[in-house]
Amino acid sequence: MFSPPCQYAIRALVYLARHEGEGPVLARDIAGSEDIPKSFLSKILHQLGQRGLVRSQKGPGGGFALARPARQVTVADIAAAVDGVPDVTHRCLLGMPECSDATSCALHDAWKKFRSDYDRSIGALTLATLAAAPERGGWSDAPTPAADDSPSAPSSNVPDRPGTLPPRPEPR
User: Fold this and answer.
1) Considering only Cβ atoms within 10 Å of each terminal Cβ, which end of the chain, N or C, has fewer?
2) Helices (H), the chain
3) For the chain, how many structural domains are there in total?
4) Neighbours of 115 (CB within 10 A)
């Protein structure tokens, strides 16, 4: 969904939000904590500073801090600052030269609703909300299926994963 620079920006700003009110934070501390290459992080923080999302302070005791309270910065603000505003609302997913309510492709109505829901969601999701979410240890913390959760004998026609079809009934 988000470009790698945008992902890094979100992670860095969540880190700053978690340290809001503690004074400026060093880029090396953000980079180390969030596993972001420091040279890349410096460029991202500079860009975020130009867009008014972070402020920097040079010298002893310097570093980076949020330019606005975490509750006033949304994921949409960050995505727009790093990736720009995407033009996917006016582009056809199936490649038609014109796709509108009047002349639409098969995906138009579903995409229009998805895009509206997506825009509303990231426009309402703030750094304060993300900063308050518990840390779960990253990718290595993903749950592993228990021995009883074996997919060998499905008990119903409910799909195992969202977006998958239910299993076919066995032929008689």
Assistant:
1) C
2) 4-18, 27-34, 38-50, 75-83, 108-124, 127-132
3) 1
4) 14
